[in-house]
Amino acid sequence: MELLRFLTAGSVDDGKSTLIGRLLYDSRSLLRDQLEAIEKSSRKKGDDFLNLALATDGLKAEREQGITIDVAYKYFSTPKRKFIIADTPGHIQYTRNMVTGASTANLMVVLVDARNGVTEQTRRHSIIASLLAIPHLVVCINKMDLVGFSQERFEQIKEEFLQFSGKLNIKDITFIPISALQGDNVVNLSDNMPWYEGRSLLHYLEEVYIESDRNLQNPRFPVQYVIRPETAEYPDYRAYAGMVASGIFKQGDAILVLPAGFTTTITSIDFYGKQLPEAFAPQSVAIRLSDNLDIARGDVFVDAVNPPRIGQDILANVCWMSSDELRPGTVLILQQNTRRVKAKITEIVYKIEINTLDEIVGVGALKMNDIALVKIRTAAPVLLDDYKFNRATGSFILIDENTNLTAAAGVIRG
Hints:
Layout: E1 3-10, H1 16-26, H2 32-45, H3 60-65, E2 72-77, E3 82-87, H4 95-102, E4 107-113, H5 120-131, E5 136-142, H6 151-165, E6 172-177, H7 201-207, E7 220-222, E8 225-227, E9 239-243, E10 248-250, E11 254-258, E12 262-271, E13 274-275, E14 278-280, E15 284-289, E16 300-303, E17 310-320, E18 331-336, E19 339-352, E20 359-360, E21 371-383, E22 395-399, E23 406-412
Parallel strand pairs: 1-3, 1-4, 4-5, 5-6
Antiparallel strand pairs: 2-3, 7-16, 8-9, 9-15, 10-14, 11-12, 11-16, 12-13, 12-15, 17-21, 17-23, 18-19, 18-22, 19-20, 19-21, 22-23
């Protein structure tokens, strides 16, 4: 069964957790003990209704404040598709958590309070969706019950968002008017909005086409682990384990091992004691080669005929996540899939103004949650895949080598 990964985003109190709770509840994906726990917590909070937001707010601090701090993951399925939902924080200081949830998503659901319209956080999250090349965006205009289910208000917010998003790299945008609290247009179409002729949110999530989102044209296989049992049964076995990041690998294919540049041939693709004729993203397999080469974690197998660019100078968009400022000259660890190299920020080209998308030049430093275009110099070559064409290998994180904390998420510009 096909898997769809999506996340919810929006400003504080726009109803993200309530929406997910409603999806789980109306699709009958909550177990009895979960429902009993939600009912008990609702009574404890003094709510005279079933507070479905509590289905995702797992941290004690979140329950007390009624906000989402961490990224809460929920799993559910329907007869048509499996889903992994990331419920991400709305507060500006937790934007870095939202980037974490967005990094593997096929789709983003942006909630907009019908009373407030498009806010700064709506713009910020939409920019992140664009930078992370999330293929599909669903704008759920929530709390329609508080504006009398007004079609005019829905159209106003839709037009406002379209004027802003025209500057973004988002190809597929869908608008759905909902009331997460009452369930209107979440799982079932609402009688309160007969003017809306589209699908419910769940129906859209079940039907949206995601097969073409995956890059099957450019083979990339980051090596995670070298398997050498050296047992009596397998005295000479040597294979390279990892997950196919993109493309298709077949037995007999000529491949290039980067960054060293060795050329060799795939002799076998192993999976739990069986040999596969081919492997494609996102399968995890072990690959055996015709030559005994010096290969280690961090190396990447690519197509020998059409290899990617590699180099040490990167132009990238980054979202800065650390409380310490980022200045030119800062040295960090750059991790791209399984490869880690030292890297220096050589220039902040410009910072993106969150409300207008203007490019602000002459910025001396980046603060937490700033989004900017920067130049980076690495100590050793890395893949320079353009993120627009290959999300798996066109992204990276920057790590503070003193604390080992993630300081930034970045996407390579070709």
